[in-house]
Write a structure and sequence with these properties.
By secondary structure, this protein is an alpha/beta fold. The protein folds into 2 domains: 192 residues, 3-Layer(aba) Sandwich (Rossmann fold), CATH 3.40.50; 170 residues, 3-Layer(aba) Sandwich (Rossmann fold). 42% of the residues lie in helices and 17% in strands. The strands form 2 sheets. Strands 3-2-1-4-5-6-7 form a 7-stranded parallel beta sheet, with helices on both faces. The chain has a 6-stranded parallel beta sheet with strand order 10-9-8-11-12-13. Strand 4, helix 5 and strand 5 form a beta-alpha-beta unit. Helix 4 runs parallel beside helix 5. The protein is globular. 33% of the residues are buried.
Length: 377
């Protein structure tokens, strides 16, 4: 293998936040020669403006995957992309060239409550939804077949018990690590917590790029923010505490995202939750922080969100996994507000084991991975 040659395969911008989350600093500090492969169709101008990296290898089409993979041999490929047909093709070529492919399995709660609403799900856009589901199944089957065949060249990163279920057929090489969120918890040496404000975890619900990719209908901007602000007023009045917005890192920071003049803080969600009285969310992975820090959680949705089987599956799955209630904020009145500020500690501990970490190590997730990478040199 080439001496400490590492390629990070991504499909989103590498800003300061992701440089840290994806382990660039740790890998470079340990002597790895790190390069980035950007997978997808985002314009180069957008990537250059939003990234902290100077040299990026772009893969937009299948022919790019073949061209790029020819020049990469005997290296470690750290795959941080969602499953797509282009990603499948590139991974196959890279494995064929005797590279080591590292797969992360940071799973989240998701149960197919959809089964009970199957007719409702297909009521609109039947053909599009059928094609989307069929293509996802085909991609998953192709990926699993490739991973099974090349299992000796694949390193599987396991973050919790639920991760193991996804890789039981190609479990040759594995490493127990943590989610990125657990790294924040490990780095926090100050155990003192406060309960000053209520935090709402913004999920960029009206325009999240993942919803666009999956062609999921979510919410109407005007209706969504109107519902939120009406709900926030009731909560602030009841608890006599201000609501602070933990802004989504990928959201456009413009005035049309109207949170009623409330303070919006970006890239500091861990600290906001640590010092919170209550955490309000839909189905954000940042609920990991609330779980680790033992904070009460309230999961919410709107009338519009209720129409989406995908969103409701996700919200109800988080609700069941954490042992917390969900409320439709469009049906809520001041008389109906009954919020329990207690949490189920047993459920929280189970959630940590299932979805955040099984490792007892106090090392950061990429420090654990770097040690494992080094064994392949």
């Amino acid at each position: 293998m080439n001496h400490k040659s590492l390629f990070v395969l991504v499909s989103q911008k590498i800003d300061q936040r992701n440089l840290e989350r994806f382990g660039y600093k740790i890998f470079k500090k340990k002597g790895w020669k790190v390069k980035t492969i950007f997978l997808g169709n985002s314009p180069k101008e957008y990537i250059k403006k939003s990234t902290k990296l100077k040299k990026i290898i772009y893969v937009k089409k299948s022919k790019d995957a073949l061209r790029v993979s020819r020049n990469i041999k005997n290296s470690v490929i750290y795959n941080l992309c969602n499953e797509t047909f282009l990603q499948t093709i590139l991974n196959f070529f890279l494995l064929y060239n005797k590279n080591i492919l590292v797969l992360r399995y940071d799973v989240i709660p998701f149960q197919y409550i959809l089964g009970r609403n199957f007719p409702t799900f297909f009521r609109r856009d039947f053909f599009k939804k059928f094609c989307n589901i069929f293509s996802l199944i085909v991609i998953r089957l192709l990926n699993n077949s490739i991973y099974y065949y090349y299992n000796k060249n694949i390193l599987n990163c396991i973050t919790g018990k639920k991760s193991i279920n996804k890789i039981k057929y190609f479990l040759k090489n594995k490493v127990f690590t943590h989610t990125y969120d657990y790294d924040f918890y490990l780095k926090d040496k100050n155990t003192r917590k406060y309960s000053n404000n209520i935090v709402f975890i913004d999920q960029y619900e009206e325009n999240h790029p993942d919803y666009k990719r999956l062609k999921i209908r979510t919410v109407t901007k005007k209706k969504y923010f109107s519902s939120l602000n009406h709900f926030f007023k009731m909560i602030e009045k009841k608890f006599k505490k201000k609501i602070i917005i933990a802004g989504h890192p990928r959201a456009y920071r413009d005035k049309t995202r109207d949170f009623g003049g409330r303070k919006i803080v970006y890239n500091n969600t861990y600290k906001l939750i640590k010092n919170s009285h209550l955490v309000i969310a839909h189905d954000s992975t940042s609920l990991n922080f609330a779980c680790l820090l033992k904070k009460p959680v309230l999961l919410t949705y709107t009338d519009e969100m209720k129409k989406s089987s995908y969103l409701m599956n996700s919200i109800l799955s988080f609700s069941e996994a954490l042992g917390v209630k969900t409320i439709n904020i469009d049906e809520l009145t001041e008389k109906k507000i009954k919020i329990n500020l207690k949490f189920n500690n047993k459920k929280y501990e189970e959630f940590i084991e299932n979805y955040i970490t099984l490792s007892k190590s106090k090392k950061l997730s990429h420090e654990i991975l770097e040690q494992k990478f080094s064994k392949f040199i």
